[in-house]
Amino acid sequence: MVVRKVGKYEVGRTIGEGTFAKVKFAQNTETGESVAMKVLDRSTIIKHKMMDQIKREITIMKLVRHPNIVHLHEVLASRTKIYIILEFVTGGELFDKIVHHGKLSEAESRRYFQQLIDAVDYCHSKGVYHRDLKPENLLLDSLGNLKISDFGLSAFPGVGVSLLRTTCGTPNYVAPEVLGHKGYNGAVADVWSCGVVLYVLMAGYLPFDEIDLTSLYSKIDKAEFSCPTWFPVGARSLIHRILDPNPETRIVIEEIRNDEWFKRDYIPVKPTEYEDVTLDDINAAFDQHEEEGNIVDQYRRSEEEEESPLTLNAFDLITLSQGLNLSTMFDRGQEGSLKHQTRFVSQKPPKVVLSTMEVVAQSMGYKTHIRNFKMRVEGLSANKTSYFSVILEVFEVAPTFLMVDIQKAVGDGSEYLEFYKNFCNNLDDIIWNPPSSDISKSRVAKTRSKRR
Q1: Which among 251, 253, 263 is positioned nearest to 120, based on CA atoms?
Q2: How far apart are CA 351 and CA 235, in angstroms?
Q3: CA quadruple 140, 143, 146, 148: dihedral positive or negative?
Q4: How far apart are CA 238 and CA 266, in angstroms?
Q5: Long-range contacts of 257-265, Cβ-Cβ distance < 8 Å, separation of 24 or more
Q6: What letter does residue 213 receive in the DSSP assignment?
Q7: CA 59 – CA 43 distance, rounded (Å)
Q8: Is 282 helix (H, G, I), strand (E, B) or coil?
Q9: Per-residue pLDDT averaged across 398-416, rounded?
Q10: Which one from 118, 121, 132, 150 is the annotated catalytic residue?
Q11: Are 231 and 239 in contact (CB under 8 A)?
């Protein structure tokens, strides 16, 4: 077995991938602790002039040490890579929990919101404004505690700077004054985003969600939203005070903490004070000359090796095809059956399949999120009254033969089938049809009920 090491860390599988980095599972060989290793390519971030931004992000993460913020252990570097060693958070994104379970209970929503407010208030006390608070950037640990991650858009303006100017963040969660290009208070803008998060936790969908950005911004600017009937009076009142389009009258964190609905079962978290927070490792990693490194890179296999989809073995194929007859993987049009899992086959390269599906889903008005040949598609249902989400995963059956498995995560079954039909009608370029004439008439793949 090939062992890959970076310093004292033994490196394992890829668990995430972003625009500028891969995240790998790793283990500290001295302590046995599991960590997440974010691997950045020096040449890529230099080419895109991202060095200063990334250095600022990890400097901020080193400074904000709170139980509800992902902990940054240290930063290492080689001649070509920068390695950010982070706390390994095992519970996934809060977003995924909402996608798979829909709206959360009042008690659970309040608990996550309390932890979010504690962590955000701590950041503000250190002069840090996150500016991209949303469920995708909120992780859950093994005990179900919330952890803020991804400080890539955060601001650390320093003493004497009262207003921020950069328009950034995710449109659905961003405060109206951020869109106004007139300067804004980072703390007050973060509070708005926290309010949107609370709404999503309790409703299962967004308060502001329009395909057209002009319409979206107009609704945000006027705070045009309504709370579902199941919202308790206390939560409804608090959300309206948070989603106040006027930043001057919007509720602040101290007032949120004094709110009766918020205070129920509230146990404030006291952050551990760290006396020795040094930035020496960060400075060494970013300030050294390209030909130098502060660690010995002991990778036995090239990190540039392409990631590939999961490979299906014979047992997988038998399970999926309900026997050795692969024709059962394709749709023969069983009328009236309510099906929730579908698949199709392609002979196109994996990244072509992914990118094509992403473009089609976005053209249908859905948002997409891709990680390791798995894509989540989500948004409001066709009737705009409930949340809808599907999961698409690409598998390799043979070197030039891929299978895309699609499953409904959240939403009505009939809406899912309508989505699947419209989705596949726009995928002619990548869907492979088997040669048999009675099957080739079908443009979509086999749909079958899940076996429990």
Answers
A1: 253
A2: 44
A3: negative
A4: 15
A5: 257/117, 259/234, 260/234, 261/110, 261/232, 261/234, 261/235, 261/237, 262/110, 262/113, 262/114, 262/117, 262/238, 264/110, 265/107, 265/110, 265/111
A6: H
A7: 20
A8: helix
A9: 81
A10: 132
A11: yes
In which residue are the tokens 């072509």 written?
A: 352
Q: Which two tokens stand for residue 355?
A: 């990118």
Q: Which of 191, 162, 166, 194 is nearest to 179 (CA)?
A: 166
**387-398 and 146-148 beta bridge pairing:** unpaired
Average predicted confidence (pLDDT) for the chain:
80
For this structure, is 287 an active site residue? no
Q: Check residue 56 and give its pLDDT.
A: 86
Backbone φ and ψ for 374, nearest 5 degrees, come out as -130, 125
The residue among 288, 362, 332 whose CA lies nearest residue 444 is 332
β-bridge pairing 387-398 and 310-311:
parallel
Q: Please tell me the distance from the alpha carbon of residue 300 to that of residue 2, in angstroms, as a whole number.
A: 7
Q: What is the pLDDT of residues 161-212, one digit of tens each?
A: 668 877 777 889 999 999 887 789 999 999 999 999 999 999 999 999 887 8
Averaged pLDDT for residues 267-280: 72
- pTM recorded for the entire structure: 0.65
Tokens 């977003």 -> residue: 95
Nearest Cα neighbor of 117 from 187, 205, 202 is 187
Tens-digit pLDDT profile for residues 138-162: 999 989 999 999 888 888 877 566 6
Which of 286, 196, 298 has the alpha carbon at shortest distance from 250? 196
Domains and CATH numbers, the chain: 5-88 (3.30.200.20), 94-263 (1.10.510.10), 310-448 (3.30.310.80)
Token couple for 162: 């009262």
Share of the chain above pLDDT 70, in %: 79
Alpha helices in 364-452 (DSSP H): 413-424, 437-440
Query: Which residue in the block uniquely carries the two structure tokens 């252990």?
Result: 73
Amino acid present at 147:
K
Residue linked to tokens 């009042």: 106
Residue 208 to residue 224: CA distance in whole angstroms: 8
Question: Which helix or strand (DSSP H or E) is residue 355 part of?
Answer: helix 350-363
